[in-house]
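Lecture 7, part B: from sequences to assemblies.

Below are the input chains for today's worked example.
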Amino acid sequence: DAGITQSPRYKITETGRQVTLMCHQTWSHSYMFWYRQDLGHGLRLIYYSAAADITDKGEVPDGYVVSRSKTENFPLTLESATRSQTSVYFCASSGGTGRATGELFFGEGSRLTVL
Amino acid sequence: DAKTTQPNSMESNEEEPVHLPCNHSTISGTDYIHWYRQLPSQGPEYVIHGLTSNVNNRMASLAIAEDRKSSTLILHRATLRDAAVYYCILFYTGTASKLTFGTGTRLQVTL
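Predicted structure of the full complex, as structure tokens:
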């Protein structure tokens, strides 16, 4: 099906482990984003990408690594997970070439628990 | 970044109109006003956006003050499915990083 998909939807890991959250979109959108949402808070931008091989930091990038070798994929890696990274992670994409549009399409989220 | 201010929560009866306010007194001339909503256990979804003129679509209407320092999202007939958190966001098309979510307004809809 067309759209934006995240995997895994649920993940439990331990402190210090590496975790990768996957995001895949089928629209060939230029822009992709990773947000995290903590209980009772709005979404905070972690990283974003304007195109393949172009990434930039958002508000809360520390402890996260991203890559974008292909337009359709934007994985988010926690190299050494900490309890403070327990959160719901949302991936989003946006059309437009060269500049973003404000219409983002979000995935269903990945709920990560770090013990 | 220009900030927005929204009430933490609002209540509405089903099938009545709902007016969700948003203040953005430091808005710049190039900022678009976007609204998103987030249903329980789902990712946010785009609702509507505008720059200066009022806008209508199948989901809602957006009324923008003449000085652009405030806006109102209007749901013409609220249903139980409209219960969600509504985010008012200022978006500058020059850079993607400006799409910053606040804490939004939690809308409760009752029978």
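Note for the exam: The CA atoms of residues 43 and 54 of chain A lie 22 Å apart. Keep this in mind when comparing with the next example.
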